[in-house]
Specification:
Elements lengths: L1 H37 L6 H22 L15 H35 L12 H27 L5 H5 L18 H11 L14
Length: 208
C-alpha cells in the first residue's frame, strides 16, 4: 500500500495532465479536419474541449504547487538573511492555504447551486458540475500539495536554501515520475546534489 501511495504521489498529476492534454488536442484536431475538410463536425466538440481545458488547468496548478514551480518575486526577500527568507516562504505557503480554502469552499457552493437549479451544459445536456467540479478537485489537490510543502520545509529548516526550497521537488523524488525516461531523473538529481553544498551528515533523499 505504501509503495502504491508513493507511486500515486509522484505520478497522479503528470498522468492525468498528459491524458487530458492529448485528448483535447486530438478532439480539436479532428473537429478542425471535419469542419474545414468535410464541412461537418461534432456539435459538442468545442464545449468538451473547454471542459477538458479547465480540468487540465487545475491539475496543472496542483502539479506546479507540488514541484514548487509557481512564479516568485524574490527581489525584496532576497536581501534578507537565510532564516528570515525561509520563515517568509513558510508564511507564504500558509497564506496560499488560506486562499485555497476560501476558493475550495466557494467551488463547493457553486456545485451545490448548479445542482439545486439543475444547470446544464448547452450542447451536451449534462450537469454543469462536470465543469464546476474541477475547482473542487483541483483545490483539494492544491491543499494537499501545500501541506506536503510546509511539512518538507519545517522538517528541513536547518538545511541550505536550495535543499529547503526543494525547487522542482528533485530532492523529495517528485521529479522521478513514470513519464520521465528511466535514469534521466536520477542523473538530474545526482547532478544537483553534487553541486549543492549541503553541510549535513544526513544523506540527501533521492528518488528510488
Amino acid at each position: 500500500m505504501k509503495s502504491l501511495l508513493v507511486w500515486l504521489d509522484r505520478n497522479f498529476e503528470p498522468i492525468v495532465m498528459s491524458v487530458l492534454f492529448y485528448a483535447m488536442m486530438i478532439l480539436i484536431t479532428v473537429q478542425v479536419l471535419l469542419r474545414f475538410g468535410f464541412n461537418t463536425g461534432f456539435s459538442w466538440a468545442e464545449e468538451v474541449a473547454r471542459f477538458i481545458f479547465v480540468w487540465l488547468m487545475y491539475f496543472s496548478i496542483s502539479y506546479v504547487t507540488r514541484t514548487q514551480g509557481h512564479i516568485k518575486v524574490s527581489l525584496v526577500i532576497g536581501k534578507l538573511n537565510e532564516k528570515t527568507q525561509k520563515a517568509i516562504m513558510i508564511l507564504s505557503d500558509f497564506l496560499f492555504i488560506g486562499f485555497s480554502v476560501v476558493i475550495f469552499l466557494s467551488a463547493i457552493k457553486i456545485c451545490q447551486s448548479a445542482l439545486e437549479f439543475n444547470d446544464r451544459a448547452v450542447s451536451l445536456n449534462v450537469s454543469m458540475n462536470i465543469l464546476y467540479g474541477a475547482g473542487v478537485v483541483g483545490f483539494l489537490l492544491i491543499l494537499m500539495r501545500l501541506v506536503q510543502s510546509i511539512v518538507w520545509k519545517l522538517k528541513h529548516f536547518s538545511k541550505p536554501m536550495e535543499y529547503f526550497e526543494n525547487g522542482g521537488e528533485v530532492y523529495s523524488g517528485a521529479v522521478d515520475h513514470c513519464l520521465v525516461p528511466k535514469g534521466e531523473a536520477s542523473e538530474k538529481v545526482n547532478g544537483l546534489i553534487s553541486n549543492t553544498n549541503i553541510k549535513s551528515t544526513e544523506p540527501a533523499e533521492r528518488p528510488n
